[in-house]
Amino acid sequence: MTKALSKWLLITRLSLADLWYDKKVSFCIIASVISVITPLLLLFSLKYGIVSQLREQLVNDPQNLEIKIVGNLQLNDEMFNWIKKQPETTFVIPLTRSLNTQADLIKDASHFVNNAEIIPTAKDDPITKNLPLLNNKKQILLSSLSAEKMQVTVGSRVKMVITRQLDGKLEKGITVLEVMGIIPENRYNRAAAFVSLDLLIAMEDFYDGYQSDIFKTSTGQLNPLNHTSFARARIYANELDNVAPLAFKLREKHIETRTQSNAIENVKAIDRVLNFIFSVIAITAGIGCILSFSGSFLSNIERKRKDIAFMRLIGFQSREIMFYLINQAITLSCLAFFISFVLFLLGNYAFNTILGENLVSQPIVSRLQFYHFIIAFMLILFISALVVAIGGRRAIKIQPAESLREA
């Protein structure tokens, strides 16, 4: 076992010594591989960086995952349970009639928001994720625009004012709410307040002429009806690719919907076009890489016929000569890939620095993940080993007598 291992180590040292002896040839082979790998890495990084950035922008904007219901319907508990059970659904919560989802928010006479959107929220809401849960009707989450207009922060208290007309008279309902969190602008960019569903139902009851324990008045009917159905709903898919299928299922239930399908399809179209362009260039470059490897290694084998014949003469077997050649190819490929990686980092930095400065909405234009480099490295090793294995069959056929004839 030790003798066999020593022999393989000897072959490895001989192959590396031979590469160092023919430094100029080795450099030419490395340069030819670098000229193919580096542009491919940069090209793929541009494609992946641009498309992944666009997808992240869409995903990070929860409104692109929303499926909006058009019009006012009568959605009962059975329908809501059905929507929740769909594999594409990540969040659903009832909504009252659109006319009943607006209110004035007031900090003081100088800081207020008229007709702010009032939106129900609950656990797992994509817009209010990582923000405090609302545990009662007296708590509220504000959009950044609402908070900016009223100059309020977390812990501040604001008044919610809604107005109804009852028996020919205008009547105001007022309640004081505590600000529990501020929603970032990239999640919701309009003036709005997110409240518990119970508060939204209390608003609708007030508008419908009932007395409310939140908006205290002395007029109106007592004992509002239980809400067994709702006019609309907030519905969110769990990922971009599931927005269209979920909307289709809702339409099959005769629920008209509206989605950000144009923005989603635009990203998919860009991805398809870039995939096609990259595939054509990658295939062309790959063929060039194989031809370059073939030409370099086959000519190298031809040039070393006498050396290979001498190795056969002194007792090296066919598999050992094949290992000798493959070891040289893998060594050169590793060096070429390492240099290509360094050049890629320089090019990647230039792309993100220069191009990123001119693309405000997309500062990162070139990016690759670690597994991309692993895949590229394995492909290079596979191609080099395959080419040499094919070309090495000619080296195996070299007879030991050739070294004597050419001596």
Structural summary, described in words:
- This protein starts with a helix and ends with a helix.
- Helix 1 crosses helix 9.
- The strands form three sheets. Strands 4-5-9-6-8-7 form a six-stranded mixed β-barrel.
- Helices cover 54% and strands 18% of the residues.
- It has two domains: 198 residues, no CATH class; 185 residues, no CATH class.
- The chain is α+β, with helices and mostly antiparallel strands and 407 residues long.
- It is elongated.
Please tag this protein with its features:
407 residues, alpha+beta, 2 domains, six-stranded mixed beta barrel, four-stranded antiparallel beta sheet, 11 helices, 54% helix
Précis, in short:
The protein is α+β, with helices and mostly antiparallel strands and 407 residues long. It has helices at 2-21, 23-60, 77-85, 144-150, 197-207, 243-252, 261-303, 305-313, 318-358, 370-396, 401-405, and strands at residues 66-69, 75-76, 89-95, 102-108, 111-120, 139-143, 157-166, 169-183, 192-195, 229-230, 232-237, 257-258. Helix 7 (261-303) runs parallel beside helix 10.
- What would the average pLDDT be, to the nearest integer? 82
Strand coverage percent: 15-25%
Query: How many beta-strand segments?
Result: 12
Share of helix, binned: 40-55%
Q: Describe the strand arrangement of the main beta sheet, using strand numbers.
A: 4-5-9-6-8-7
The geometry reads as elongated
Number of domains: 2
User: Low-confidence stretches at least 5 residues in length (pLDDT < 50)?
Assistant: none
